[in-house]
Automatic annotation (TrEMBL):
Function: Endonuclease that specifically degrades the RNA of RNA-DNA hybrids.
UniProt keyword list: Cytoplasm, Endonuclease, Hydrolase, Manganese, Metal-binding, Nuclease
Domain RNase H type-2: 25-217
CDD domains: RNase_HII_bacteria_HII_like
Family statement: Belongs to the RNase HII family.
Phylogenetic lineage: Bacteria, Pseudomonadati, Pseudomonadota, Betaproteobacteria, Burkholderiales
Cofactor binding: number and manner: Manganese or magnesium. Binds 1 divalent metal ion per monomer in the absence of substrate. May bind a second metal ion after substrate binding.
Membrane-crossing segments per the record: none
The protein's name: Ribonuclease HII
The keyword Metal-binding is annotated on this UniProt entry: yes
InterPro entries given in the database record: RNase_HII, RNase_HII/HIII, RNase_HII/HIII_dom, RNaseH-like_sf, RNaseH_sf
The keyword RNA-binding appears for this protein: no
GN (gene name): rnhB
Places the protein is found: Cytoplasm
Amino acid sequence: MARRGSAQASAQLGLELSPAAAAVQRRCGVDEAGRGPLAGPVFAAAVVLNPKRPIRGLADSKILTAKRREELYEQICERALAWHIAQASVEEIDTLNILHATMLAMQRAVQGLAASGCTPDLVQVDGNRCPQVPYPVEAVVKGDALVKSISAASILAKVARDRELLTLHAMFPQYGFDSHVGYGTPQHLAALAEFGATPHHRRSFAPVREALSRTPATMAAMLAAGEPTSSLATLPALSPEADSAW
């Protein structure tokens, strides 16, 4: 298995018009969604695009609107040579840690794609770390903005994860998963302190542990003081941007 550093990957294969990239027939782009949130699985997707059926507008999923991501999701599923979405569960995140669980989700995504009959020539992964896969693999820093197949993977993973969080919102509407999609906002931390954790919260994450340590009486005192989120502000609130850097 060949593995190159991210700097070399960016120089040689980060741009799709480079000679080395042009020689690749089945480039598999891989990306994840959901490393930073306090709840829900971490998702990963693997995509091999079809050069005969191009998709316009592929980009890093974080800069696209939700509506545009949904549109591109359908086009990717329809036009790609192969694609697969996988996940690692909350239990796996709490057992393995989020980095290893993310690598596991990526590994499953590539394995699922290959099982469909499309064996990749090269697996390119967004970021600076690679999962263990039986194919040439390399990390590409900012790959979701440089490599179209990674952009496509980022879109599939993001849409799949957002849909999962909407399902959680229907089950637990008091937490507001439809607005913060699991990230550690003051609203989410306050709901954790008031209602406790669901089975879908990542107890290995410090904000979940600390929010759960706050008793209902403590929360009531905060509300009575008129500053329901003031002390919660000391907890690190993760954002979608946390998913873009290892």
